[in-house]
């Protein structure tokens, strides 16, 4: 399988850690005041060397023999090449389990470990694939008339949601990632022997609502966990108990649970999790909001679940009625709520639209620190595929591509586009052909130029000090001469990509099926939605300039701090007179301010790196860094007094220029701290 040759690979729909290791690297770059960018060179035309079987126009027979042979040819080599210890796979079709397989190692211990291929009953952690189970539980209550998808969820809760908008927050919003919440890191994933407390996690430092409900897709673990708590409240059963009684037991899923830590009967069967196959095993992860990602399951059990979701399990095992499942697999929001954003792929009630080759596909990906998974269902074809790997691998982006490759190869092999290389109409009626024109019209070029700029993800941090990460995790859009739009990188693939306009506000990737949709207000682009649950927002010039200015200011302060002792040594060597004594106090206080500002920058670097590594930072440590930040800001006062004295004494242009530079640098560091909430009384994250 080719996992590193394509520019178009879709990154699996990811959940809890928000690419924690990648973000940690970005955080490191940010807080040591570099200006690392995600942008790269303008991409070549995508499509060549994609590594998929997209040229296949005759479906292969979906049998155990063929699927097993396909998996044996592709997966073991891909695991080895990417440094992944093991994998778990399940495939179903026409009411039958086609295959359930394990590959590689579930434990790489020195005593030989445990092979994952010994049994398909080895347990893996599917991460945010758990959200499909949560959505299923919600839809069971909807079907029974116990909850209303469009009622304000406050009707079902025993605490108040912090809101910034008057519009109701509904279960429909929670299941489609449109309640408007920003991201939170604290308590996302931990370890230990204590089970997570769902209610406590939801009421402790909840994320701020930064978008009007139903308007801006922004993936939200908090929102999904809130839906799970509604299940708990309305059913009168703890969430884990509800899933046991109403999902796992009816389907005979005896190897599945949301309980953390695992029940004794399952503990010896769970795969270890790894950064990569050569490293030590990590601890069992405790997901702080269980409905969003705490599931543990086997390939055999996931096969049972897929059959039930497809409505092809035995009658007594059906989880939902046909009409409820169809509602669950249909777009959750319409153009009335989303406006022009409805032109892109949309969330259903708990799943992503992932159509390919004219076949309707709904799915969900999931990531913990160590496990990385994806599940897809073909509702109209009665098929499903699930894969989970137990390692991040040597390159996290390549691990994402591995899963995307497997899903796309499955579609192209068993459900190829109809016809002989012709138009592949997607399930929502959008054609899959692309323009081959060498040059675009003036209107096309103008439209592409209108979208050009720097963007950040709506799924991010807005009201906390982690908002400083935004200018680092950027996406550059540029207009090409042929009227197409270049993305570097494409947030859905993490690689460069090219789009062409196919509607007033809709663009489709060249030689692909993914679409983006644009929202404008008063002629200005206010957002670009992609991959169903994500939105790009324009990054304003002030925030874009923040990090470079901070970098320059930090260099000035560091040089200034070093210049004072260096100057003293130089004067002693050259036997030059010391500076005027009447400015000594102000000079000393200025040095204290400069040192404090530099320590604050370093302190924030440590704080953000620790947070993005999913470790807790004591509040006293954050408050301490804030004190340093305030002292640094106050350092401008003695610096200004010192400058006035130097001007009056005519101390020389070098000294005056140096003091002026220090004042400007302290001001820049302070402005950055204010802009990105470093001085906010709220230190939640």
TrEMBL record:
Keyword Transmembrane helix belongs to the record: yes
Signal peptide from the UniProt entry: 1-39
Region (Disordered) location: 421-444
Biased composition (Low complexity): 423-443
Claim: Transmembrane is one of the keywords in the record: yes
SUPFAM superfamilies on file: beta-lactamase/transpeptidase-like
Any one Pfam family match given in the protein's UniProt record, by short name: Beta-lactamase
Transmembrane segments: 549-571, 592-615, 627-644, 656-679
Protein name: CubicO group peptidase (Beta-lactamase class C family)
